[in-house]
Amino acid sequence: MSGIQTGTSSATAVSRRQFLKLSAATVGAAALTGAGVHPVRAASHVDRDAAAAMLIDISRCVGCGNCQRSCIEANGLHPTDAQLNGLSAQTFTFLERHDLPDGRTRWVKRQCMHCLDAACVSACPVSAMYQTEEGPVDYRPGRCLGCRYCMVSCPFGVPRFEWRNGLTPEIRKCMFCIERQRAGEEPACATNCPSGALKFGKRGDLLREAHSRIAADPDHYVDHVFGEHEAGGTAMLYISDTPFELLGFRTDVTTRPIPAYTWDIMSKLPAVVGSMAVVLTGASIITRRRGGRSGGHHDEPPWLTVDEPAQTDHPATDEKGA
């Protein structure tokens, strides 16, 4: 049997056509992107005025700790003495003490801020962290991968990882007593606040009350509602008689929703991918032309060629092996 001649296979030709079609499609997408045609990012579905929220009046807090004790009981938590002084896997809220230069003491209730367009929700690749219709950011432990992207993305440094549970790790934080809310009850912390420092309700109503309190006593209150605009708006709203920077609040938090920054990058990816397709297609054409000028047989660029197994000629023999 004579040797088999090799050449450009039909499989290779199909691969080339497919490559060029894909390149053209990608370039087309890049052109649309350059023309200003972008996909629309899904905005938060939360009604900003009707969302569940809490107004926290720092000037009214007496530091009794009822909010923390109520949270521990309602959520079945078991914090150590050390954990009572900060957010942890067993402490969803705590009172932070601030002794001011003028001799006053102020207490600040800390917990998840429940952003209306939450960075932790946007960062979670499996929607373990998700935003409920009512507004609070809840958590599905059965979906969690333990990647802790939510911890990295949170502008307030709230989520905590349950390190002690190695087999089924979980992210832990305040869930704003979402189950109590659905049962028609207030969050446990608000129910047991004796001084009126905590008020639960709809965000729009609480914002109006916050501004009314400030306007009614401008010499007492700082003219700012923390959480109205920070990180695009949060469910936890603070008013205070002391500048927020003296109470450990992050005053450098952007007023733009954190996920919007991610979208700024993601929306440009089609143009980047399209440009890469143009470059690769150009490289293919140049390689083919150079191969033609050199007299070689380079019908395909090396990275598109489908190699066929080498064939070896053998002397012809009859059926008897003669």
Summarize the structure.
The chain has 322 residues and is α+β, with helices and mostly antiparallel strands. It is 32% helix and 11% strand.
Q: Would you identify the CATH architecture of the domain at 52-256?
A: 2-Layer Sandwich
Uncertain spans, ≥5 residues at pLDDT below 50? Answer: 1-14, 19-42, 263-269, 296-308, 315-322
* Strand and helix order: HEHEEHEEHEEHHEHEHH
Largest sheet: 3 strands, mixed
Report the structural category: alpha+beta
Strand order of the largest sheet: 8-1-9
Provide a count of the helices.
9
Radius of gyration: 31 Å
Characterize the overall form: globular
In total, the number of strands is 9
Distance between the termini: 15 Å
The percent range for helix content is: 25-40%
Looking at CATH, which topology of the domain at 52-256 would you report? Alpha-Beta Plaits
CATH first level of the domain at 52-256: which class? Alpha Beta
Task: Quote the average pLDDT.
Answer: 80
Percentage of residues in DSSP E strands: 5-15%
Write up this protein.
With 322 residues, the protein is an alpha+beta fold. The chain has a domain of 205 residues: Alpha-Beta Plaits (2-Layer Sandwich). The chain is 32% helix and 11% strand. The protein contains nine helices and nine strands. A three-stranded mixed sheet has the order 8-1-9. A two-stranded antiparallel ribbon has the order 2-3. A two-stranded antiparallel sheet has the order 4-5. The N terminus and C terminus are likely disordered.
